[in-house]
Structure formats: structure tokens, C-alpha cells
Amino acid sequence: MDVLEIIKPENQVFCKTKLMTDATLSYCPGCGHGTVHNLTIEVIDEMAIAEDTIGVAPVGCSVLAYDFMNIDMTQAAHGRAPAIATAISRLWPNKYVFTYQGDGDLAAIGTAETLHACNRGENIVVIFVNNGIYGMTGGQMAPTTLCGMRTSTSPYGREIENMGSPLKITELVANLPGVFYATRQSVHTHKHARKAKKAIRKAFENTRLNKGVSFVEIVSNCNSGWKMTPLESNQWMVDNMFPIFPLGDIKVDAKLKKS
Which domains does the chain have, with CATH numbers? Predict the structure, then answer.
């Protein structure tokens, strides 16, 4: 007998949404991707929009998102998710269309697609997981890699003189008129996960109102790429990532917030 069958409704405080499949997550233990997946699909379930939602997952750690999300999903070439999402949204303007991207995908090879989709104000949701490294392909330096941070392609640490500064892509797109909502959240604690879920829900609600791009960045860890335990990586993220990528809303209802 399924354990849920013997739990009385009045005692049940949580039930996994049926929109998350039973497939084993391919992410490293301790990675934030699984939590972001679950929050996203919970929002879709709670809004009762599963039949009208289409997700786009490009190359990166999220490439197998369609294995875990029981909704319509399509893949995109590396960095091209905003372009594919644009086509889907324009063909089916009544659909809820979202991309799910990492920093190497969205802020490196896909910079042009990201900026132009945001500038045009396409009616899509962009969920951007920023862990400061190429997690899938070998731990190379990404545009969001911190100064001094060691990666497989910056073994002595990122140097501003030769490699530039970390790219604050969410602040960058927030200045574009087509972006209605831009926020940066995290999922490393229950409190932060709840805030992230509210942000994701707001983004999808904006789509229903045809408000343009809603851009949700999630600062996450990469304990594998950072060569740390999950606990160590979360603390390192708080101590090092958050000062550079501070959490909170950046643009709400098409109005930039004062820093």
C-alpha cells in the first residue's frame, strides 16, 4: 500500500505534485537545480496551467529537464532557448512559455538571444540558475565566475585584467524596456525557497497579463564544480556569491528599484 494512502488528509502537510515525474534527478546531491525544478512545477500545478505551459531547456545541467517535468517541453541548441521561446510564444500567444537556463548558457553563448528577447519584451518567463561555473561540461569559467575563483580554465583564479569582471546579467537586462520583472533569489534554505517560489509565481502571473519578459535569477551552488561538500558550498555561496549577486527584486512592474 502506498504510504500516502494511509495518511489521513488532516495530517498531510505536503504531497509531491504529480507534474514532477518519478525519474531520478540527474543532478549532483546538494545541487539547487532539483529544488528550482520542484518550485517551478509546483507553481504550474497550483496555477492549474499545466495544459497551457511549454518549457524550453537548452544545453547544460538542465538539458534533461523534460525527464522530470510532466509538461510539454522542448530542447534548444546551446544558448538559443530565448529564441525558441520567442517562436513558441508568438505562435501560441495564449500559452505560458518559460526557459530554464544556466549561466554558461544564458550569459555566455546565449547572451545575444537573451538580450534581444528581453529588449523586444517577449511574453516569456526566463528562469536563470547562476552557480558561477560551467557545471555540466567540466567546471570551466563562466561569465558569472567570481574574481579570484578557480575553475578548470582559470586555475589561478579569475583575473579582471585579462578576463573581465563577473557579469551581472540580471541588472543588465533589468534596464531594458521589454523586461517587466527582474529578481534574484536563492533556494539554499526553506525561507529562501519560499521567496523564490513567490517570485516564480509572480513571473508566470505576469505572462497571463501579457506584461513582457519576467526574469528570475536563482543564485545556486555547484558543490561538484566548486570541489566542496553541499554544506560547504552553500556557506561559500552566502559568503562570496551574495555580496556580488545580492538577493532581492531589481525591477518590479516595469520600475527599477533604487539600490
Answer: 28-134+142-256 (3.40.50.970)
